Amino acid sequence: QVQLVESGGGLVQAGGSLRLSCASSARTFNWYDMAWFRQAPGKDRESVSTINTSGGVTTYPDSVKGRFTISRDNAKKTVYLQMNSLKPEDTAVYYCAARRVGGNSWGYWGQGTQVTVSS
């Protein structure tokens, strides 16, 4: 069983920055691809970034590309999401997720952390 705990959310003004962290309990953290998702009220959950086991491959949707950066520290079993130039439409609950290498679904989820961007 893999436990994920997010932290770093909060209230920030538009144009500001936040860094989210997700700590994992997995003994073999480097066997897992990691991702950040978000869900705004009344909207579907969407992926905002993914990172492979080594950290060498990352993906972003156009809505956050150039503003968000995902990274991981396998020694600390932690994945990060640096969010810059935040916009009110980035307001959502942000979730960390893990997928075992070779798996086809994000099987492990954190409890989420609220990010609120004021205009």
Can you walk through the features of this model?
With 119 residues, the chain is mainly beta. Helix content is 0%, strand content 50%. It has strands spanning 4-7, 10-13, 18-24, 32-39, 46-51, 58-59, 68-73, 78-83, 92-100, 108-109, 113-118. The strands form 2 sheets. Strands 2, 4, 5, 6, 9, 10 and 11 form a 7-stranded mixed beta sheet that branches. The protein is globular. The mean pLDDT is 97.
Terminal CA distance reads 40 Å
Describe the main β-sheet briefly. Answer: 7 strands, mixed
Uncertain runs: none
Q: What's the β-strand tally? A: 11
Helix-strand pattern: EEEEEEEEEEE
Residue-averaged pLDDT: 97
Number of helices: 0
Helix content: under 10%
User: What coarse outline follows from CA principal-axis ratios?
Assistant: globular
Class inferred from helices and paired strands: mainly beta
Beta-strand percentage range: over 45%
Radius of gyration from CA coordinates: 13 Å
